[in-house]
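Backbone shapes recur. Consider a single case.
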Amino acid sequence: MRKIIYGINISLDGCCDHAKFGGGDDIQDYFRRLLENVDLIIYGRKTYELMIPFWPEVAQTQSLNESGNAFAKVFSNLKRIVFSRTLDSVDDEQTTIIRDNLKDEIIKLKQQPGKAISIGGVEFPAQL
């Protein structure tokens, strides 16, 4: 059975607002190494929209520093699932939308062969 890994950028005082702060090289390196052992990322809509199209664009343009570019390259090659009842479509070949039965879908995904599954976000993981 596949492992689920939860990861999030958070300050010591519990702030998860990417508009107020971002991760440095050490955070990007940590998450890059984490994603090297993953073949699927699952997000809720809000985190998905934070990550896409930003990181795939960085992977193409290599417009950040070495750590950011390396993270973008690993991230953009992974399959993604976004759980959302409001998104009609996504403009991303790597992403599938799932609308219902969150718990059942996660159980099915865990039983499939593959590497670990990464889950991220603030609100979405609480539904698990």
Q: What stands out?
A: Residues 30 and 71 are 9 Å apart (CA to CA). The chain has a mean pLDDT of 91. The chain has one domain: 4-9+22-127. Residues 4-9+22-127 form one domain.
